[in-house]
Known about the structure:
The chain is α+β, with helices and mostly antiparallel strands. Helices cover 57% and strands 16% of the residues. It has helices at residues 2-57, 64-71, 94-103, 136-139, 143-187, 201-247, 252-277, 289-306, 326-343, 391-402; strands at 78-81, 87-89, 107-110, 114-123, 126-135, 287-288, 311-315, 321-322, 350-356, 361-367, 406-411, 417-423. It has a five-stranded antiparallel sheet, sandwiched between helices. The chain has a five-stranded mixed sheet with strand order 7-9-10-12-11.
Amino acid sequence: xxxxxxxxxxxxxxxxxxxxxxxxxxxxxxxxxxxxxxxxxxxxxxxxxxxxxxxxxxxxxxxxxxxxxxxxxxxxxxxxxxxxxxxxxxxxxxxxxxxxxxxxxxxxxxxxxxxxxxxxxxxxxxxxxxxxxxxxxxxxxxxxxxxxxxxxxxxxxxxxxxxxxxxxxxxxxxxxxxxxxxxxxxxxxxxxxxxxxxxxxxxxxxxxxxxxxxxxxxxxxxxxxxxxxxxxxxxxxxxxxxxxxxxxxxxxxxxxxxxxxxxxxxxxxxxxxxxxxxxxxxxxxxxxxxxxxxxxxxxxxxxxxxxxxxxxxxxxxxxxxxxxxxxxxxxxxxxxxxxxxxxxxxxxxxxxxxxxxxxxxxxxxxxxxxxxxxxxxxxxxxxxxxxxxxxxxxxxxxxxxxxxxxxxxxxxxxxxxxxxxxxxxx
Length: 426
């Protein structure tokens, strides 16, 4: 924005300077030319007056020698031409002199050497022509210096306008950049970000609105964390009752299995409470997606072997970092694989694949089951269409959004379900 303001100011100021300086420069040139022509006219009139006086005082025909004595030393580039063509002084344009002698009227013209003015003096013996010339140097004397001063004045005006525009743009661009940087920090989770109201009134108003919005977001997130923590606390009571009932099971294997699951659920609830109580991180987490896929695939392979499912795992080599917490990443992958066990019959093969293409990363879970029901819309969060809670795909969708990607559902060539998450690798 600052550069655009400077460019706009430069263009407008340059047009204004040209509109004033060019006519002024032409006026200076015209005045210098007019000064030279007036000088030629004064010299010619002075010589003509001397010629008239000499003719009037002479009782006989005025000769060139006698008139030369009367005139004395002529000014530079001036001449007197007698009726018989005899020249007194320096040579001048003979064509112009002949025209004046024949027409009996003063004439002037511009030549390659400068400006020439010829005045006739009519006598009884004929017409005497008085001529005066001004060289080009005299016609343009002072013009170059004046043009230089005008150019410096124009450049000075442009530079001064650019300086003023730059300082004005700084008062606008500075607060704008501060506001943009604050918005970026707020978008990355720094809820303590606030901006100071500076600059024009409009930007000050925007800064105030931004601070109100940041306070509102912080308040909503704090309320949400409190609600999650409260809900987690409420789950402890039925979980405790479930533990007591599990301890009364007669079968040791069943009792140990249920208690392990209860302990795991209790640990997840404790994690929810801790996450809800602490402030959100200002720096995004970094998780190795490839490592998480290998770990969760190993966990689910035990159940797949029990149900005699063929499980294919294909993960690219090397570290694959994504800006999502490891727990959230693992929960999303568990939801993708868990859907296979929930909605397909035992023995149904499935595959887990993580690869990289031109767009980015692609995480896929595909099975050879019946596929998604007709009319199923993945955009309806919390609705599965198959009798479940539908929260699994909701978790996967939020995971994809957190990683800067998107969730897509499709059908495999064999008619099974394909859950694909496109991610931006970092």
